[in-house]
Amino acid sequence: MEALKQKIIREGQTVGTGIVKVDGFLNHQIDVKFMNEIGREFRRRFSDIEVDKILTVEASGIGIACMTAPYFDYPPVVFAKKTTPSTMTEEFFGAEAKSFTKGTVSIIRVARKYLSKGDRVLILDDFLAHGEAAMAMTELVKQAEAQVMGIGAVIEKGFQGGGQKLRDAGFRLESLAVIEAINDGEITFA
After folding, report:
1. 9: which of 24, 29, 93, 103 is 20 to 30 A away, CA to CA?
2. Do the record's keywords include Disulfide bond (predicted)?
3. Residue 157 three-state SS
4. Does the pTM of the predicted model rise above 0.85?
């Protein structure tokens, strides 16, 4: 998505050779108009599938999923929680996910009542680095005996291997911008 690449160049910041900060429009402050374009682009790329649920991880993926849902005729957006809130008293599906940027390991959870056997699920997230969060979400879908229809990432850091890992596992992956490298503060797109 050329508009996304240009926005990353204009507004993003690099940290070392592995981190791109896009918190000014994607994951701290949301550019709602631009996020609408991202939702439309995900629909265009997944125009051949039907979706019963959109799954993401709190918190950065929620805005993306919510802005994408109208383009799929408003399926529910389900987001995996990184901690167990005291209000989650029911049984849940759980899977381990490592965070590249935070350097932590979490068990992401979805209450069983929100993912059902046979659901057709689209997984969306802001970043795809090593693929840990996406793989954990596919595990939640598997536990529910539902079906992963596709995985969408706004930004894939191709040099960190997560995209290849998902493709090798047989998942359909659509990344709106793929960063090939970050060198001396300069981003190279695939």
Report:
1. 103
2. no
3. strand
4. yes
Phi, psi of 82 (to 5 degrees): -85, -15
Comparing C-alpha atoms, which of 184, 128, 126, 133 is closest to residue 159?
A: 128
- Closest by CA position to 20, among listed 158, 132, 133: 158
Q: Is 169 annotated as a binding residue?
A: no
Beta strands in 27-130 (DSSP E): 53-57, 77-80, 92-99, 104-111, 120-128
User: Residue 132, annotated ligand binder?
Assistant: yes
pLDDT tens digits, 16-58:
888 899 998 998 899 999 999 999 999 999 999 999 999 999 9
Q: Is residue 28 part of an annotated ligand binding site?
A: no
Q: Which amino acid is at 18?
A: G
* Domains observed in the chain: 2-189 (3.40.50.2020)
pLDDT tens per residue, range 77-132: 999 998 776 676 679 999 999 876 677 888 999 999 999 999 999 999 999 999 99
Q: Is 129 annotated as a binding residue?
A: yes
